[in-house]
Amino acid sequence: MEKILVSACLLGQSVRYDGGHQLLLNQQLIRWQQQGRVVAVCPEVAGGLSVPRAPAEISQLDHRVYDNTGIDVTDAFNQGAQSALALCQRHKIRYALLKESSPSCGSQLIYDGHFQGEKIVGQGLTAALLRQNGITVYSEQSLNELIVQVEALDQDN
After folding, report:
1. What digits encode the pLDDT tens for the residues 64-80?
2. What are phi and psi of 102, to 5 degrees?
């Protein structure tokens, strides 16, 4: 059975920078959880950051991650990305469902690094590392594509 890495915040875990979550209510995702297919991760927490924590964005000047107080938190983000990759390798995971716009998990869009709420095309550190290692990354906006992919695999097996 194909396991899927999923951002913990999408599963309702209160791990976001503001102490909240982004629960994604989807019947197929619930079914996957019940089947034991879901492996939850919050790369930022896995990297040692607290909940709550200052919001962070990737600087377009030096491609490092800074929180809104100016502290460089790139090392924690990289450590979290490595933890997510290790989970994928341990569980032979080929697909990840990650939270869009996050400096860790954004797969198509990230905030522009100026803390003004503007998004740009880009990807978070975890999404990029997973892709570099052959893992296909989806966001909550492309969940239906992931569902189709996993259902096709299930039919082949």
Report:
1. 999 999 999 999 999 99
2. -70, 145
